[in-house]
Amino acid sequence: MAQIKLFGYTDKITVKAGDELVFHVSADGTDTAEAQLVRLIHGDQHPDGPGFIEKEIACEVNGPWQVAKQFTQVGSFLTAEDPQGALRLDGSFTLFAFIHPTVPAWGTRQALLGRWDIQRNEGYCLGITQAGFLEFWQGDGKDIDYLKAELPLVANQWYFVAVSFDARNSQATLRQVGVGNRYNSRLGKVAPVEYDSHVRETLRFRARNQDDTPFLMAGARDWHELRGHFVGQTYCGKIDRPGVYQRVLSRDELDAIATGAVPTDDGRVCYWDTTLGYTEHGIGDTVIDIGPHGLHAQGYNRPNRAQTGWNWQGRNDCFRLAPHEYGGVDFHADAVLDCHWQETRRWRIPADLKSGVYALRLRAGPGIGLAEEYIVFFVRAATPRARIAMLMPTASYLAYANEHLSFDAQIVQAMTGQPPILAAVEMEMYKNKEFGLSTYDKYLDGQGVNLSSYRRPVLNMRPKARMSSMGITWQFPADLSIIGWLEAKGYDYEVLTDEDLHRDGAAALAPYKVVLTGTHPEYHSACSMASKTTWPTAVA
Question: CB of 162 within 8 A of CB of 145?
């Protein structure tokens, strides 16, 4: 019998009366779970304290739920929607890009750009082999042709890479040129390393281009009988200003692009100018195509934009000062920002629900260990009446969400003076890459994680959780001790979150005479910090 596991999250973590809350639940080993709405009062199970305290709340969402296994797309990539089939490339073509691979030889194939279906062996793709060589491959659904560079790619080096296919004679030419300088790459030009490769071969097969195969950058389409289509062969590294032509570009033309020339219009299908779209209001996930079809690429799991590009000269340390030198789009094969699970149940917050810390408790089978899940959310008062506000530091919860410090931070044991105390949930979190990482962790290529989200199960933002490196409650479960104290003393209070302050500013705090913070309110936005500094003068 399979082990029962329940995990879930909500589309929002702070709500008030009238708001709708959507629950997303994944289950292993069961198709039903018993749901119960609870108000959380004390989260520490230590025998010297009051113990774990929750209050069950009568609610229409209580009772048996139908649940199912759900899957998460891991890895960041770009998709270019192509409804007219401009990227089918049935004739001659050229693909090119500047690339900066961070772990070229990490033992799995990595796709850079193309229309490749892994399961069907169809399409075309420029990518990297398991051993770290640049390679072009195309398949007709039965057989695959491969054209591999002569020299392996060096990690953290910028290259200009291109492949041309001449439909007249079936010749493919693969080109790899080092474009590193002393600023943009790990090694400068003075290092005695060979980077360049130029190979040509007559291919046996033509690419079969199915209408439903997407054009992807930093990944390729795959299929599994349980989860359906997903993106595999995800890439670790940067891509800068990729392009596609429906003709063979000459060596002189490719040399010109490799040294910074803007590609010509003649035969251009797509040219994604990765330096466009930078605004004073932020940088979105859309990478602009300035080609004739406008096939803008959309990011998944938030590829990092405005990173140093192939032409960065080391003089300007911000993309605002030299946007043309910050065309790098950074991809990570283990990035997760949103699980995108199917909706399991939705619920509208009742008008009479008291402000507080709540959770939907799910249990299946024995209801212990991984068979029990608490999906936490915070209810704000629609009309504030209390004089005390408990400010839950959700920004700090997210910064440390699903942190792997006990496993990966070598200094932790020396700092704490003890080995980690691991529970089953920590082991599951570490094994399952679908839960994502905290901003205290590193991606598999060693780069730091800079984004976090609550649209995934946050396993350490749960009651009963303990910080495994120290074996104590910390952050959210520790903050429930303040809730327990307020309840024990009979104080009338209401709950706010950092998200409320970011969105509403000082107005969120104005109705209250006293504001309590959590035990570790370490992170703030500019808006939430401003609201805290102006609150005392805004009290009614």
Answer: no
Kind plus residue range of the DSSP H or E element containing 501:
helix 498-504
> Are the CB atoms for 339 and 24 separated by under 8 Å?
yes
Mean pLDDT value across residues 243-250? 98
Distance, in Å, from the CA atom of 345 to the CA atom of 348, rounded to the nearest integer, reads: 10
Angle at 285 between CA 283 and CA 289, to 5 degrees: 100
Work out the angle at residue 263's Cα, subtended by the Cα atoms of residues 216 and 309, and round it to the nearest 5 degrees.
65
Summarize pLDDT for 180-202 with one digit per residue, the tens: 999 999 988 778 889 999 999 99
Task: Decide: 68 and 91 in contact? Cβ < 8 Å.
Answer: no
Domain parsing of the chain, residue ranges: 5-72+341-538, 79-331
- Determine the 3-state secondary structure of 314 from DSSP: coil
Q: What angle do CA 380, 381, 386 make, to 5 degrees?
A: 120
CA dist 164 and 254 (Å) reads 10
* Per-residue buried b or exposed e for 236-275, using 16+ beta carbons within 10 Å of the residue's own CB: bbbbbbbbbbbbbbeeebbeebbeeeebeeebbbbbbbbb
Q: Which residue is listed with tokens 């959380």? A: 40
* The pair of three-digit structure tokens given for residue 243, joined into one six-digit string: 């392009």
Q: Provide the pairing of β-strand 20-28 with 5-10.
A: antiparallel
Q: What is the pTM of this model?
A: 0.94
Beta bridge partner(s), residue 220: 232
Q: pLDDT tens digit string along 209-234?
A: 888 999 999 999 999 999 999 999 99
Strand 122-128, strand 110-117: pairing: antiparallel
Residues 6+ apart with CB under 8 A from 208: 122, 123, 139, 140, 141
How far is residue 469 CA from its own chain's centroid?
25
Q: 79-331 architecture in CATH?
A: Sandwich (2.60)
- Given a cut of 50, whether residue 26 has pLDDT beyond it is yes
Calpha distance 122→142 (Å, rounded): 8
**CA angle, 235 as apex, 78 and 438 as ends, to 5°?**
90
In the three-class reduction of DSSP (H, G, I as helix; E, B as strand; rest coil), residue 56 is classed as strand
DSSP-assigned letters across all residues of 89-146: --S-EEEEEEEEESSTTSSS-EEEEEEEETTTTEEEEEEE-TTSEEEEEEEESS-EEE
So what's the pLDDT on residue 540?
Answer: 47
> How far is it, in rounded angstroms, from Cα 92 to Cα 417?
64
Are 487 and 480 in contact by the 8 Å Cβ rule? The answer is no
CATH of 5-72+341-538 given 3.30.390.60, 2.170.190.11, 3.40.50.300, 2.60.40.1930? 2.60.40.1930
| Closest to 510 in 3D by CA, of 534, 482, 478 | 534
